[in-house]
């Protein structure tokens, strides 16, 4: 298979997991190359996600590395076999690659959790809300790029609109619900949109109110996408310095615990809907 110029986050993840299997087997790159009948350069390339690898080769690699986790092997083989060119590819070279990587992760996710403290999660945003956010960027975005970002964000919602959507759960702090993004009319429309989506099949929205006692943790806004097996989960976090993708088992365990803590501290979905509905009636 030809060498890629740039690997997506999902392609990189497949390569990383293959490298982990090799290292767990105690093999060097050249040892693996000899077992597979190839050279060290090709092993390096598919471990970096820069060269495609077939489903059959993934299974052969797992056999050579004596991997006994069949569920993981099946999941990696499925990743290798998938050649989906999703809707996000139309933005390739026009938007930052992290936007496309997030869309791809969401498309393949078995489930998704969003946690936000200051803004409405991207999947729940209205067009006006998203445009107001992108308009506030420093340095200011050119109009064409801003509108591309808005359109891309709106298209991400396709995962909630499938006939059988993957489970989606959002935990939103009251601060995000009250933050005036755009006009007052746009802010109210955004709340109504959250209410509407909270009643969609497979979607759950929970609210953390200001008056929750002893709650002081505001440190981990995130998008958590569930893989076919827990080892293939991914956390996506935005920062002023860019978007980060977290996939180490130890860190994933911390984020799972963090989400469950937030989930248990928040209002249940019914009470959260009542809470948001009351906010829409405030002057």
Q: Order of strands in the sheet with the most strands?
A: 3-2-1-4-5-6
Radius of gyration: 21 Å
Count every helix, treating DSSP H or I runs of 4 or more residues as helices.
12
Average predicted local confidence, pLDDT: 93
Spatial shape: elongated
Q: Kindly state the percentage of residues in helix.
A: 40-55%
- Give the N-to-C terminal Cα separation: 61 Å
The class by helix and strand makeup works out as alpha/beta
Total beta-strand segments: 6
Largest sheet data: 6 strands, mixed
Which stretches are poorly predicted, pLDDT < 50 over at least 5 residues?
A: none
Q: Element order, helices and strands?
A: HHHHHHEHHEHHEEEEHH
Q: What percentage of amino acids are in beta strands?
A: 5-15%
Write the layout of secondary structure elements.
Blueprint lengths: L8 H16 L4 H8 L3 H8 L7 H10 L5 H12 L15 H12 L2 E6 L10 H9 L7 H13 L12 E6 H5 L5 H15 L4 E6 L13 E5 L7 E6 L2 E5 L2 H17 L3 H13 L2
Parallel strand pairs: 1-2, 2-3
Antiparallel strand pairs: 1-4, 4-5, 5-6
């Amino acid at each position: 298979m030809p060498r890629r110029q740039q690997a997506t986050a999902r392609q990189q993840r497949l390569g990383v997991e293959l490298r982990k299997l090799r290292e767990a087997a105690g093999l060097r790159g050249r040892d693996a190359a000899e077992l597979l009948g190839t050279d060290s350069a090709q092993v390096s390339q598919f471990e970096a996600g820069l060269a495609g690898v077939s489903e059959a080769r993934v299974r052969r690699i797992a056999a050579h590395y004596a991997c006994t986790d069949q569920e993981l092997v099946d999941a990696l083989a499925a990743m290798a076999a998938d050649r989906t060119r999703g809707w996000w590819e139309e933005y390739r070279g026009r938007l930052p690659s992290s936007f496309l990587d997030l869309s791809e992760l969401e498309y393949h996710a078995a489930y998704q959790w969003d946690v936000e403290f200051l803004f409405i999660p991207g999947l729940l945003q209205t067009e006006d809300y998203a445009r107001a956010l992108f308009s506030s960027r420093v340095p200011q975005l050119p109009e064409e790029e801003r509108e591309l970002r808005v359109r891309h964000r709106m298209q991400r919602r396709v995962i909630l609109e499938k006939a059988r959507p993957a489970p989606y759960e959002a935990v939103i702090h009251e601060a995000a619900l009250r933050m005036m993004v755009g006009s007052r009319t746009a802010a109210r429309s955004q709340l109504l949109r959250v209410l509407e989506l909270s009643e969609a099949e497979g979607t759950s929205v929970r609210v953390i109110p200001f008056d929750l006692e002893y709650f002081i943790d505001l440190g981990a806004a995130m998008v958590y996408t569930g893989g076919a097996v827990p080892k293939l989960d991914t956390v996506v976090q935005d920062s002023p310095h860019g978007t980060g993708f977290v996939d180490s088992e130890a860190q994933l365990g911390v984020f799972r615990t963090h989400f469950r803590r937030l989930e248990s501290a928040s209002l249940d979905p019914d009470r959260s809907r009542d809470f948001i509905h009351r906010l829409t009636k405030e002057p």
